[in-house]
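Supplementary Methods. Inverse-folding protocol.

Structures were first reduced to a C-alpha cell string of length 134. This string, shown here, constituted the complete conditioning input.
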C-alpha cells in the first residue's frame, strides 16, 4: 500500500503508508515550529493535494530557519524532513533562492547544555560536548 502526494493531477511522491504517516506527522511539527501552514493537505483516501503557493512560502521559511540554525540537535532532528520537503518542492517546480537564504548563523548552543561527564552546564574538556558533536 502507498499514498499519493499530488499537485493537481501530477503525483509528486508515492511513499509507503508508514513513511507517509511519519512525514505527515513531521509536517505538523514543522508547521507549529514555523507558525505557518505547509500547503500539504490532509491525507484522504490515500491522497493529499499540495498547494504550491502556500508550500513555497513554507519551504522558504523552513530553509531560512535551517540555514540560520547552528544548533546540532535541531539540525540532526530536522535534516530528513528538510531533505524530503526540498525534493517535493523541486518536483512541484518551486525554486529556492539560495543566495537570499545564506545568512549568518545564530549564536551556537544558546540553550543550556549539561555535560554527561561533569554534570555542570559547561562542557568537559576534550569531550563530545566541547567538540560540539552532541
Amino acid at each position: 500500500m502507498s499514498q499519493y502526494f499530488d499537485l493537481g493531477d501530477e503525483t509528486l511522491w508515492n511513499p509507503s503508508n508508514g513513511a507517509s504517516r511519519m512525514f505527515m506527522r513531521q509536517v505538523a511539527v514543522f508547521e507549529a515550529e514555523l507558525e505557518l501552514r505547509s500547503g500539504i493537505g490532509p491525507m484522504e483516501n490515500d491522497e493529499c493535494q499540495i498547494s504550491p503557493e502556500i508550500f513555497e512560502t513554507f519551504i522558504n521559511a523552513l530553509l531560512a530557519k535551517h540555514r540560520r540554525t547552528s544548533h546540532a540537535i535541531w539540525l540532526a532532528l530536522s535534516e530528513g524532513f528538510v531533505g524530503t520537503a526540498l525534493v517535493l518542492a523541486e518536483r512541484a517546480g518551486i525554486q529556492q533562492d539560495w543566495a537570499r537564504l545564506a545568512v549568518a548563523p545564530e549564536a551556537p548552543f544558546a540553550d543550556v547544555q549539561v555535560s554527561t561527564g561533569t554534570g555542570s552546564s559547561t562542557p568537559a574538556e576534550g569531550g563530545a560536548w566541547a567538540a560540539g558533536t552532541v
